[in-house]
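Service request form, structural biology core

Requester: graduate student, group of Dr. S.
Request type: structure prediction, single chain
Budget code: on file
Notes: please return the result as structure tokens.

Sequence provided:
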Amino acid sequence: MEYSPPPLFKQGPSALARLVFFVVLALVLLISDARFKTLEIVRGVLGAGLYPLQRAALVPRDIFMGAADLAVTSATLRNENAKLRAKDLQLSQQANTAASLNAENAHLRALLQLSQRLTTQSLPAEIQYDTRDPFTQKVVIGRGAQQGIQNGSPVVDEDGVIGQVTRVFPLQAEVTLLTDKDQAVPVEILRTGLRSVIYGTPKGDTLDLRFVPISADVQSGDELVTSGLDGVYPPGLPVAKVVRVDKQADTAFAHVVSLPVAAVRGARQVLVLHVQNDAPPRPADAPDAATVAKEAKAKKGAKAADGKGAAEKSATKPGDRSAADKATAEKPAAKATEKAPAKAAADKKSEKPAADRKAEKPAAAKSAKPQAEPGAQP
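Core staff response, request fulfilled:
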């Protein structure tokens, strides 16, 4: 009779061998699925088979959520309805007030013959992609020169200012965002009317309100809107909100940090505004006092030089007249000498040396001088 151990005590492969086998099998399956996608079909079949089980497991949660929704009482609904009615009444009152103020404003402008505010035209556009330069805050929109986009036009969304068009192509345009370090927007504080200029920062997350005196009334939470003084941005567009004001004694200006109101990086659809500025051109700048003084000194120097030249001309006139008289006196003597026979002149020239000829010239001039005196002017 053959002896065999009971089934409970039968031994198969060792535990270490099993562990190594399954670890190697798992690694092979992972590598093959990651490299060659061999288990996609198996995964799809298992997912389709397990979907009914997943829905069945989620049934208790759906029942609980439905019961919680049905547990809303009629009192809560009445309270919400009352709040909505009160808000509707408040908004209707504000709308009526705005309509009356608009009519009054139009009447006052007509009475004072003031021009209306700038007319603004808008063109919708969609942001396509960001620029490749990581150090600038710029995006590209799908509108260009053929659609009427102009360089320098402001870009806004439903919340406020996004940026400004800085480069225009035929079918696209480049927009510099509000948070770019080279972008500047003239703004004013809505509460006090203080005007300043807001700039982007190198990090691109906050805005810096510069040139604010340390004694200015600026508080955290103040709203900043466009002032409209530059003729590019229409007045009253929301730009940012003040979050921190740092006033230091060693500086003349306060450090005001603000955050943009609009989602500058999260916007997808924007509006490109085309502002028509009907303001008259800026008059020519008046010359400085130093320039005026230099021009006056130059004119005085020119006049003095002209007077000096006239005096010199008047001083040289008598000398010129005496020289002319001498020339007219010498002409008759020269004619008289020319009338003498050529032979005599040749004999005289041959007999007399050059020194005698030089002596004859002053004698002739002296003999001719008395003849010119009666005609000379005193």
